[in-house]
Amino acid sequence: MRRAALPPGALDATDRAMLNALQDGLPIVARPFDWLAQKLGLDTQGILARLARLREIGAITRFGPFFDAAAMGGAFCLCAMEVPAPRFEEVVTLVNAHPEVAHNYERDHRLNLWFVLATETPERVAHVAGTIEAETGLSVLRFPKEEEFFVGFRVEV
Predict the structure, then answer these.
(1) How far apart are CA 22 and CA 17, in angstroms?
(2) Residues 6+ apart with CB under 8 A from 57
(3) DSSP state, 126?
(4) Beta-carbon neighbour count of residue 74 at 10 Å?
(5) From 19, 133, 154, 156, which residue has the greatest number of CB atoms within 10 Å?
(6) What domain range is 40 assigned to?
C-alpha cells in the first residue's frame, strides 16, 4: 500500500495525545481502553472510534503488541527489494501476505521496498525471504540485526 503524508490538521490535539500515550504502552488489565479513556478524559467508545479513524486515514498502519522475537529465540531481519514501479502494488500484496512481515515501507530510490521479517527461528528468515523471492521473481536483500536501538516516537500536542 502506498502512503501519502497526512494533510495539515488531520490530527487534532486529542489524536496526538492518544498516539503519545500509546507509545508508552497499555497496562495489562482487563479493560485497557477504559484505562486509556480515563487517562485522556474520553470515553472508551471515543478511543476505539479514534483508533479506527487513525487506521482509515493512514496515520497508523497497525495497532497491536510488539513481541521481541529475538528474546524468544527468534530473529528480526531488515529486508529490501528493488521492485519495478508497475509491479509495486502486486509485490507489496505478496510480501504482506506473509505473517512474518512485521511492517514495510516504500522508499524513493532503487531499493524502493523495505520490510522487517520477524520469525520464530533465525533459520526461518532465509526460508521466508526465499519464498518471497520465488513468488515475486525478485531478490530480497537481507540486513540482519546486529544491534538494537529504541527510538521514542512523539507527536507535538
Answers:
(1) 9
(2) 6, 10
(3) H
(4) 18
(5) 19
(6) 13-56
The rounded percent of the chain whose pLDDT value lies above 70 is 97
- In three-state secondary structure terms, 139 is coil
Q: How many residues does the chain have?
A: 157
What does pTM read for this prediction?
0.65
pLDDT at 3: 63
Burial (CB < 10 A; 0-12, 13-18, 19+), residue 97, is exposed
Cβ atoms of residues 115 and 103 within 8 Å? yes
Q: Is there a domain that residue 95 lies in?
A: yes
The stretches of the chain forming alpha helices (DSSP H) are 13-23, 32-40, 44-56, 88-96, 122-136
* Domains: count for the chain: 2
φ, ψ for residue 133, nearest 5 deg: -60, -45
Q: In Å, what is the CA distance from 156 to each residue of 12, 20, 133?
A: 10, 9, 40
Q: Is 156 within the bounds of a domain? A: no
